[in-house]
């Protein structure tokens, strides 16, 4: 069985759990925390030199890091990755967007609010900058979702899982989704899918 080194409250770890749940892939979970220094210790860095969760250990002992790379590994050849070349590339487009333009705003602003050890970093300037960047990312999603059910193509894919992870906790980061009706409908659509699990399930 694949082992997931996992931080329960983290959206990045949740992506892997949610993809695995949809794919019916069982995971052995090893709960860790990015808050207690354990991801910076030699024992963990030997598994993942980047020092981040999630990380998986495959059945043959090899390791793989980066939430979106792990999802793609689990999902390869299945229904969460489009067979069509262009649609698959659009899914990758959303995955790269998530890592460069979305997660660095929505996940980081949420962390400043929910992890007390980061409170001193929550200066008004930083909060304003993250709010603006996050709203820009939500605008991009809204432009797609106002007229489409799913982000990357005509079906639910790893792109939807990647973006769902930190969009569904956006309000914990102080984002107001009221002006993003397409995004709100999409959040409900994802949560209603058979096989869905919640962040803390
Ligand atoms: N790009 C990475 C980001 C992972 C990440 O930032 N993980 C955080 C928890 S959400 C972490 O492990 N931080 C530990 C640290 O920075 O020491 C991914 O998508 O997996």
Provide structural commentary.
This protein folds into 2 domains: 2-75, Glutaredoxin (3-Layer(aba) Sandwich); 85-191, Glutathione S-transferase Yfyf (Class Pi), Chain A, domain 2. It contains 7 helices and 4 strands, in the order E-H-E-H-E-E-H-H-H-H-H. The chain has helices at 11-23, 42-45, 67-75, 85-114, 124-145, 158-167, 181-191; strands spanning 2-6, 27-31, 55-57, 63-65. It has a 4-stranded mixed β-sheet with strand order 2-1-3-4, with helices on one face. The radius of gyration is 17 Å and the shape is globular. It starts with a strand and ends in a 10-residue tail after the last helix. The structure holds glutathione (GSH).
List strands and helices in order, with pairings.
Blueprint: E1 2-6, H1 11-23, E2 27-31, H2 42-45, E3 55-57, E4 63-65, H3 67-75, H4 85-114, H5 124-145, H6 158-167, H7 181-191
Helix pairs in contact: 1-3, 1-6, 4-5, 4-6, 5-7
The structure holds glutathione.
């Amino acid at each position: 069985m694949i082992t997931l080194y996992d931080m329960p409250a983290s959206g990045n770890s949740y992506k892997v759990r949610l993809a695995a749940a949809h794919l019916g892939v069982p995971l052995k979970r090893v709960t860790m925390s990015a808050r207690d220094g354990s991801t910076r210790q030699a024992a963990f860095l030997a598994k993942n030199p980047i020092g981040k969760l999630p990380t998986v250990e495959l059945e043959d002992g090899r390791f793989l890091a980066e939430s979106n790379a792990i999802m793609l590994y689990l999902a390869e050849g299945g229904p969460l990755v489009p067979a069509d070349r262009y649609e698959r590339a659009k899914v990758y487009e959303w995955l790269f967007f998530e890592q460069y333009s979305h997660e660095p705003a929505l996940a980081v602003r949420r962390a400043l609010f929910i992890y007390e050890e980061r409170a001193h970093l929550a200066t008004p300037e930083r909060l304003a900058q993250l709010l603006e960047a996050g709203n820009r990312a939500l605008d991009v999603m809204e432009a797609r979702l106002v007229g489409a059910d799913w982000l990357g193509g005509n079906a639910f894919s790893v792109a939807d899982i990647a973006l769902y992870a930190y969009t569904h906790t956006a309000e914990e980061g102080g984002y107001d989704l009221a002006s993003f009706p397409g995004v709100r409908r999409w959040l409900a659509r994802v949560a209603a899918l058979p096989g869905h699990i919640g962040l803390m399930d």
